[in-house]
Write a structure and sequence with these properties.
The complex is a heterodimer.
Chain A lengths: L2 H19 L1 H5 L24 H7 L1 E6 L3 H15 L2 E6 L2 H13 L7 E4 L10 E2 L20 E14 L12 H4 L9 E4 L3 H11 L1 H15 L2 E3 L2 H10 L4 E6 H9 L4 E3 L5 E11 L5 H11 L2 H8 L4 E2 L11 H6 L3 E3 L4 H16 L2
Parallel strand pairs in A: 1-2, 1-3, 6-7, 6-8, 10-12
Antiparallel strand pairs in A: 3-10, 4-10, 5-8, 5-9, 5-10, 5-11
Chain B lengths: L2 H8 L1 H12 L2 H28 L1 E3 L4 E4 L2 H7 L3 H33 L5 H12 L3 H12 L5 H10 L11 H26 L2 H9 L4 H12 L1 H17 L2 H7 L7 H9 L6 H25 L25 H26 L19 H7 L4 H33 L4 H9 L6 H14 L8 H25 L3 H9 L4 H29 L5 H4 L7 H11 L3 H34 L2
Antiparallel strand pairs in B: 1-2
The chains are: A alpha/beta, B mainly alpha.
């Protein structure tokens, strides 16, 4: 029993000491970012000379974003390379970002400069600075907030998707009414549990009574599986777990398709549309850098970069990836859905009642 | 003594002050300090939960007093279904897990069957697998549409329908039990190891049959450890989220945590409704702690490490050694092997690849290249490992002191301390994270956007686990050892360091490893608290799941997380074995 306590004690002391000392490594300053001073060039019209000197003087930019780091970090490296402004990037889901920003606002904390996610239109106006970036003139009119609080960076078109090994293109229904006839697909169709925007667009397209009645018939016939997460649903449809996604984000279905999965999309009336947006924090610690970055997010350079990751652009002068997808979708009736929080709650309750029987 | 002093002593206040001064020594101050710190850690999320539940959601955080959250959360009959599903799921998981864990614990700790060290290491390894990936792997194994084991069974037996459906209550229970049974082993193992076999021998000598001895001697002696494991497993089943999300939701089996998460991911998040639902979860868990304390209130009855010496011995199985070991190995293969093989296999393919059925697809290392070159992966790995080591050490230290106070120093108030330390387990991680965020933005403690705020969250989240390990360990040490040391003139510090710490070392080390492995992959609280430069592994996993990455990339991330943890766990296991061997030397 003599050696045991000694080793135990030694291990405990060493472990404790290591635990206390280890974080000091994290306190070591990072290597200074090399600012590559590339002056304003014709290829970078977003480098607004009215903002650039003040933004550079601020030195850094903090971005809150729901875009993954694999896209977000190289994207903002373009910004850093062009301006010399160091970027700190924090990624979280839109719901987490929304509540985190709300709590920070209330505590008068200035933690971020710009936010980029798909729910900025639901933020209280006083949290966002009104600003019209010069590049906003190039994006489609429905992607601009009339109050200048947010702008669409990429378009989130919604459409059904199907597994190409389980369903032949000739079997695809050409309307949502036809969906309600596909008894053989019962239990093989999925929809995300938060697709209240799709529900609102369907009701708007078919009218209140007919729209709700149609969705009831679809639910009764297909008994859709309610999933959690749009990418998870796209992957599962591509893998054959579900034969059809009743509704999904087109860019996610296409992402899974271009990765080699057996999935494809087709368009039905109505096509629901909302946007991945950018907004400037009303309490931004680096307000000029924030405005310059918002301008960058709407630039051709930024949207061309995002198109490589299958994000669908809001600018007409940027080609979609794959080409022609926006044209295919816009042949149908496109309904832009931008809801305030209370309205969204109401539609979500309606969605839960229809799909989950609550 | 002078007259003046004598008069002063007669004053009631002065006498109390004297007693207070006598108790004001370093060990006592440290004890009080530990309790105050632990109470503070728990107080923050608990008050956030209650505050959120009873106030209006404004979009900027909690507003005026309101009962609307309760009305929204509890006004539908749906709540009864939630309650029933949660209860069935948690009880089913706790019982299945306990049986599996107890079997492993008995074979490893009380018999001479080979492979004990391997089973122990495998048990620890299972914690390194993130819950989300474990659930995903079980879908790939037993989904009626894409599960490879179902396809294998259908082809072998010529079936037209898949024989197993993972999307069911039984499927959920199995998926969680297969992940948690090593925890039951970890809690029961040290208790079985410390069980004095002479008590059983004495009962046998007195004419008792093996069955009688098992029922009347062995089981009662193990009661604190069994109840501790059951309590922990039940509460973890109630609080688990990944399996209900991935397996329960498609089967329309909703539980409390799926509804809580549903409220949290609304835009804007309905923290008030989530907290109102969370309070029920908390109440159920507190009730479980109450019954646990009641069932183990005569703690001395369960102490098997006494001043009379104890001698852990093993049952000799003879010819049954290998069959028993193979039986346990088969259970490990079924519970851990199937999902792990599936994950490793999937990590070499971009899209869904079924083992034995993917002849057409080409294996690739692209997923590993993708993960290892992911921009912040290595920084996040470093931060997660450091945070986990710090959190595990602090939790082990704090809960050791708290469990001792709860059982020895202030047993009358032990329930309060025990329940307090246990409370965070019933508060969803995201609410702990949001509560800490609110608190430390308002308090003049500048840790926001630093690694320290994550450390505070991790210690808070894992106090309950540390408490269960320490509590069950201390229950088994008879207080006469401490009394003997005190009579011999040992101070509190000496009793702690020379008596308690060595005897509890295996339990504390097991608890340390467990907390470390859980903390490395923590997600719920981290999503609110990571800041610029403080990314952690859990948030990268979530990004992979939510925002990018194929099945293959997600699986590869899991494998990449498991491998370094396996090395660390194996290293710690060798230290543990050396401690045990030295302790057993004559």
């Amino acid at each position: 029993m003599i050696g045991g306590p000694k080793i135990a004690g030694l291990a405990a002391v060493l472990g404790f000491a290591l635990s206390l000392v280890a974080p000091l490594f994290l306190l070591l300053p990072p290597a200074p970012a090399r600012a590559q001073d590339k002056a304003t060039t014709p290829s970078r019209p977003w480098l607004d000379p009215a903002l650039l000197p003040a933004a550079r003087a601020e030195g850094s930019l903090i971005v809150y974003s729901s875009t993954n780091e694999q896209e977000g970090l190289p994207l903002f490296k373009l910004f850093t390379d062009a301006t010399g402004i160091k970027v700190e990037y924090v990624r979280a889901s839109d719901a987490v970002l929304m509540s985190r920003m709300g709590i920070e606002f209330r505590a008068d904390q200035s933690s971020y400069d710009i936010v980029q996610t798909a729910t900025i239109n639901k933020m209280p106006a006083q949290m966002l600075a009104a600003y019209e970036p010069p590049e906003a003139n190039h994006i489609s009119p429905n992607a601009r907030d009339p109050n200048q609080r947010w702008y669409g960076v990429y378009a989130n078109y919604n459409s059904p998707a199907y597994n190409t090994e389980r369903v032949r293109p000739s079997e695809l229904p050409q309307s949502y009414e036809a969906f309600a006839q596909r008894k053989e697909w019962a239990g093989k169709v999925a929809i995300d549990g938060t697709d209240n925007e799709w529900l609102k667009a369907v009701v708007q397209y078919y009218g209140e009574r007919d729209g709700i009645d149609l969705v009831k018939r679809i639910v009764a016939t297909l008994r859709p599986v309610i999933t959690d997460g749009h990418l998870a649903m796209a992957r599962a449809t591509g893998a054959g777990e579900y034969w059809v996604s009743l509704n999904n984000y087109v860019n996610l279905s296409m992402n899974v398709k271009l990765a080699g999965s057996a999935i494809d999309v087709w368009a039905l009336d109505p096509v629901t549309l909302f946007f991945g947006q950018v907004g400037v924090n009303a309490k931004a610690p680096h307000p000029n850098a924030a405005r310059l970055a918002a301008n960058f997010m709407l630039s051709r350079e930024c949207q061309q970069f995002l198109a490589k990751f299958r994000r669908l652009p809001t600018r007409n002068d940027v080609q979609s990836n794959p080409p022609g997808i926006i044209e295919m979708l816009t042949q149908k009736k496109v309904i832009t859905v931008l809801m305030a929080p209370e309205e969204e709650r109401r539609w979500q309750r309606q969605f839960d009642q229809l799909f989950k029987g609550r | 003594m002078s007259i003046a002093n004598a008069r002063l002593d007669r004053l009631p206040g002065a006498a109390a002050a004297g007693r207070f001064a006598a108790r004001l020594n370093l060990p006592n101050v440290l004890l009080v300090g530990c309790v105050v710190i632990a109470v503070w850690f728990v107080f923050v999320p608990l008050s956030a939960l209650i505050y959120n539940a009873f106030t209006e959601d404004t979009g900027f955080g909690p507003g005026a007093f309101s009962l609307d959250n309760f009305a929204e959360a509890y006004s539908s009959w749906h709540i009864l279904r939630l309650f029933w599903n949660s209860l069935v799921f948690a009880v089913g998981t706790a019982l299945t897990t306990l049986v599996m864990g107890a079997l492993v614990a008995w074979v490893v700790e009380r018999t001479d069957a080979p492979g004990g060290s391997l089973f122990h290491t495998l048990s620890l390894l299972s914690f390194a697998v993130p819950g989300l990936l474990m659930a995903m792997a079980w879908i790939f194994v037993f989904s009626p549409n894409i599960g490879w084991a179902n396809a294998l069974l259908k082809s072998a037996f010529g079936l037209t329908e898949a024989p197993v459906n993972i999307y069911s209550m039984a499927g959920m229970t199995w998926a969680l039990s297969s992940h948690y049974f090593p925890l039951a082993y970890l809690v029961l193992g040290p208790a079985l190891r410390a069980l004095d076999v002479r008590m059983e021998e004495a009962a046998l000598m007195a004419g008792g049959s093996y069955r009688q001895v098992f029922a009347k001697v062995t089981l009662p002696l193990l009661r604190p450890a069994i109840l501790s494991a059951l309590l922990l497993l039940f509460v973890m089943g109630m609080a688990s989220y990944e399996v209900p999300r991935l397996i329960g939701r498609p089967a329309r089996i909703d539980v409390f945590t799926t509804d809580i998460q549903g409220a949290i991911i609304a835009a804007p998040p309905a923290f008030g409704v989530a907290s109102a639902l969370g309070l029920t979860l908390l109440a159920v868990c507190m009730l479980a702690v109450f019954f646990y304390r009641r069932a183990t209130r005569h703690a001395e009855s369960f102490a098997t490490i006494t001043g009379k010496g104890y001698r852990p011995t093993r049952v000799k199985l003879g010819r049954a050694r290998w069959p028993v070991a193979l039986g346990v190995a088969a259970m490990f293969i079924l519970a851990l092997g199937l999902p792990l093989i599936t994950l490793v296999w999937q990590s070499f393919f971009r899209n869904l690849a079924q083992p034995f059925f993917s002849a057409g697809a080409l294996a690739t290392l692209d997923n590993y290249e993708f993960i290892l070159s992911y921009p912040i992966f290595l920084a996040a790995l470093k931060t997660s490992v450091l945070l986990a080591a710090m959190a595990a050490t602090i939790v082990a230290g704090l809960t050791f002191v708290m469990a001792w106070i709860a059982q020895r120093s202030l047993p009358r108030y032990g329930f309060i301390l025990d329940a307090l330390a246990f409370a965070p387990i019933a508060i969803p991680g995201v609410i702990v994270g949001a509560g800490i965020l609110v608190a430390y933005l308002m308090l003049p403690i500048p840790i926001y956007n630093t690694i320290w705020i994550l450390l505070v969250a991790y210690v808070t989240l894992y106090l309950p686990y540390g408490m269960r390990f320490a509590s069950s360990g201390i229950t088994q040490i008879h207080r006469e050892l401490e009394e003997a040391a005190a009579v011999s003139g040992a101070g509190l510090a000496q009793i702690f360091l020379r008596i308690m710490l060595p005897l509890l070392a295996p339990v504390l080390l097991a608890g340390w490893i467990y907390v470390f492995v859980l903390a490395v992959r923590e997600l719920g609280a981290s999503i609110f608290l990571v800041g610029p430069g403080t990314h952690v592994l859990g948030t990268i996993s979530l990004t992979m799941w939510e925002e990018g990455g194929s099945y293959g990339a997600v699986a590869a991330l899991g494998v990449v997380q498991i491998v370094p943890l396996a090395v660390i766990v194996a290293g710690l296991r060798s230290i543990e074995l050396r401690i045990q061997r030295r302790a057993q030397r004559p």
